[in-house]
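Why does this matter for the project? Reviewers at the last site visit asked to see concrete outputs rather than summary tables. In response, this paragraph embeds two records directly. Each consists of the residue sequence and, immediately after it, the corresponding structure tokens. Nothing has been edited or filtered.
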Amino acid sequence: GSEMCIRDRLQKVADVLAELAKREWPQRWPDFHKRLLQLAGRGGPRAVRTAVAALANLSEDCTSVEYQQQVPAKRRSQVRDGLRAVHGELVSFLLNVATFGAKQLAVPATEHASAKAKAFGHELLQLVLRALRSFVRWLPFEALVPAPAEAAGGGGGGGDGGGGGAVAARVAKVDARLWPFLTSFAGGSLPGATSA
């Protein structure tokens, strides 16, 4: 229906924004991330969805084999360095969106637009987790979720390193630490949640 058409258009806008960022940011479009976050802050739910999808695309592309084959190593490095430089702002934004999305899932069933709110909340949470899963592949884990005191002495690392097993373990840790946080707002389980 019309909602699916709108979602497709928003995804296309997000795709274009991510493609522009891969070519122009941070060198020729240094305030891209600030403009993206401003768009999300002023533009309402659709703008938030578009901003999160653009960040997810950009972050995923930094780790995809196809992107690595299409874009010179120097350019890939520049984009990753740009993301690393502003990761605090981006991760904070994503976690705020996750909180908002989880609250949408907790809307009481008696409210008129609760089904639409829940669907939107679920979609936002999926996009946020998609973005964070790709961020964890090239950001230090501590940049995404502060380590608990008892794990402070645990293995370090960061950057791009590690094999597939190390990356999978980091993704599982993000899921294991984020899902309880998100479900606390939803009052139970979230649709699509997977246990690590």
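We now turn to the second protein, recorded in exactly the same manner.
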Amino acid sequence: ATFDATEGKNMTLLDGTEIDIPGYSLATSGNVTVTATAKGQGVPSTASAKPIALAYDLAAKDSQNESITSFQSNVTITIPYTHAQLEALGITEEEISPMYYDTGSGTWKIVSNVIIDEDNDTVSFTVDHFTSFANMTSKVADEQEEEETQTFLATPMAKKNPEIKVLDVDGNVIRAITAYSSSKKIELRVSGNYKE
């Protein structure tokens, strides 16, 4: 959204997230542009921070198309949550921690001035800059094992020794199965480090 920086703006996103930008908070004159990009997958997780739902990448630019990296005054962000989201993760409203992603350290950090409105199922907080923001929880890391994704790669039967390789998410081979055949039997031989 592009608007007059002196008048401010209240933006409502598709999931009900609200961004309340007071006049003069981003700039003292001219137009400003604020973008909000929803991220459902690929949201960084750490041992102490797991996303409850969507994260948003927020950015602001001034009338010269330069990034606004700090605000004149705070902006309020309100993110809704549902009880179904909390139940799916086995958490309560008290275990919601709104956080922002610090690109310098590659970690999620807890925001300040948090208000959890249990009657309206929202979490509000104020920020002095834009980055990625999300409702997070740390309890999930303690109670749920992280799923390991494995990719199977099979070579064609036309090759001399057909082989099936199991790859981890980084593309490293963690298991290789080679099929050897004779007129009477087919043998599968397994190699590599893997967990049973």
